[in-house]
Amino acid sequence: MEGFDPKTSFGYEMSQRYDDDPRGDEADAVEFLARLAGQQDALEFAVGTGRIALPLMRAGVRVDGIELSQDMVDRMREKPGGDQVHVTMGDMSHVTTGHTYGLVYLVFNTIGNLLTQEDQVRCFQNAASHLTEDGVFVIECRIPTEPSRPGHQYLDTEQVGLEHVDLGAGRYDPLTQVLDLNHIRISSGGIRLFPIRLRLAHPPEFDLMARIAGLRLRERRGGWNGEPYDAASWRHISVYERADSTVH
Predict the structure, then answer these.
(1) pLDDT band at 3 (very low <50, low <70, confident <90, very high)
(2) For 32-142, where are the E strands, in sequence order?
(3) 3-state secondary structure of 219
(4) What is the pLDDT of residue 10?
(5) How far is CA 191 from the centre of its chain?
(6) pTM to 2 decimal places
(7) What is the dihedral of CA 246, 239, 71, 2, to 10 degrees?
(8) Closest by alpha carbon to 120, among 108, 109, 112?
(9) How far apart are alpha carbons 100 and 216 in whole angstroms?
């Protein structure tokens, strides 16, 4: 996507509207993550506006964060309890907090914001370096469908409302596994574009990344409520532990 800079894609405008359309499963995600964290601290990669970190804190888990966008952190600071999350600014594939955690997590397809396989591997390695001996790394990501689209491109109708229509225009590069996607809102106020670029990967590739990082798959679910992961699943929630761990 010509001119797209992933480092600025979550700037001020995005931070102000990021929480406008909650997915609806945030409470289920928090319950799942709180259960894994137990009495230990947690670290969220790409903590953003605190959509998960803040309710997880209210559930009794102390949460730190790593975040690239100062605008997203500023938005979190405006929320009740937002000043209680210690945030280290920087790239989640490189930056360290200097602490270890019983839970490191990365949700909502955000690992795709790292646009090369090398950076995604480094993200797994960075997560592993932050884990306690019995800690786990959790990622949530959808199952890519774009590789099967005719011509590796598409135009989808995402939402039809009385006063607006949302479209999604995408083009997938099978060589880099990078998806260029532009969300288009057409309304009486005009046309607005919300571009994003993601590197897509299937669960087996993530499992190999985990192995490189000294981790192994503990369990994989199709949803936050423990739904089985199978051929019909549209996403996966994968829990990784240290490869030498004897604790379950």
Answers:
(1) low
(2) 42-45, 63-67, 86-89, 101-106, 131-142
(3) strand
(4) 78
(5) 27
(6) 0.94
(7) 130
(8) 112
(9) 18
